[in-house]
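Re: beginner question about structure tokens

> Can someone show what the tokenized structure looks like for a real chain? I only ever see the sequence side.

Sure, here's an example I had lying around. Input first:
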Amino acid sequence: MTYMYPAYLAGTLGVAIREDLGLDRAALGLTISLFFAIGATAMTFGGRVADRMGPRRALRIAAGMTGACLVGVAVFGGSWAGLLVSLAIGGIGSAVGAPVGALLILRHVAPSRRPIAFGLERSSLPASTLLASISLPLLATVLHWRLVFLVGALAVIVLVALRIPDAAPRAAKPVSERAEDTSAPAPRGRLAPVGPLLLITLAFFLGSASATALSSFFVDYGVLLGFSQSEAGVALAFGSVVIIAARFGLGLGRVRRPGRLTVAAMMALGAAGFLLLMSGDRVLAVIGMCVACGAGWGWTGLVALALAEVYREAPGAASGLVQAGGSAGGILGPLLVGATAKYYSYPVGWSLSAIFLALASVMVLANRALWKERR
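And the corresponding structure tokens:
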């Protein structure tokens, strides 16, 4: 969860950061995009590193770099250059941390319990947004924004101190219910088939672009609509709760597992949420934000589960590639919406986000058709 926290916190505290450093919305978007740019560049390599070194060591490295990022912002964030360098360090940490969840689940969770496990693991990312959002009314009103980053570093220090075992004892279970043997060498298989994987990576790229733009600029947009910073932060926190509920709820399906049609339909509904967000009405904007969050970004647990089951020989590499697409989307979203808000308006930026989700839905349907053809 913590490896994405710096980027989400920067977006939530964006108003204070812009006022303190004298940045415009486009510059803030560029700042957040740098985090994702570094992560996207190194994500595939980070996935292969996690495959080889195991989840415990990879998690410690990722948490350590995230902590260094948060402390760096607190110490050096008084200048734009210091903020950029610190967030770049966090981006490297995200490249190693992103694939760890899939490895832990494959090595420690029985197959029958993996849907809910992936739902919980994917819920950790909106939990980062939730923590970042509630930090605004709880901390940012009484502390300088750089001190809020320092408080966040304390949680990461606690995580680094935890011992995450590479192998955990389990009671005897039928072979069909056992997770993979954790004492076996790390898998080093090939990523095949490649075509469906690239389509899902593209869908993840587009979905992430819309979701990251929303988490980065909703507070600023809410202030323009008449909310206080604290009220907009609370609203964004509620949107994160909706994402968590959606991912957790989808993981509970046991009779018939939700598939690609469900993912495509959720993306289309998320696009409709952005259209509500464009209205300029405060009530409709909050409703639209919640719909865009829950439907437009609540499906990632289903994708993570499918990747782990299809690419069993290299789960970290497959997850790393797809999440590299997500990080690349994190570059595009804040940059494009931030620049659009500066030179045109936020409604135009939200319309672009809606288009991204609509195209992502098409990519998922194309993935489904390709799999049917292969079978």
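Each token stands for a local structural state, so reading them left to right follows the chain. The first helix runs from residue 5 to 12.
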